[in-house]
Amino acid sequence: VITFLDSSDLKFILISLIEKALHDVGQCLFTVPFSP
Fold first, then answer.
1. Which pTM value belongs to this model?
2. pLDDT of 18
3. DSSP character at residue 1
């Protein structure tokens, strides 16, 4: 089933993905240098 998304829905999804990616990258950057 293909559903056509609003541009607003698409923006929300993109922003969510970008924020998640940035969060994951930030956690890696902050975790690796301080790991034993």
1. 0.56
2. 95
3. -
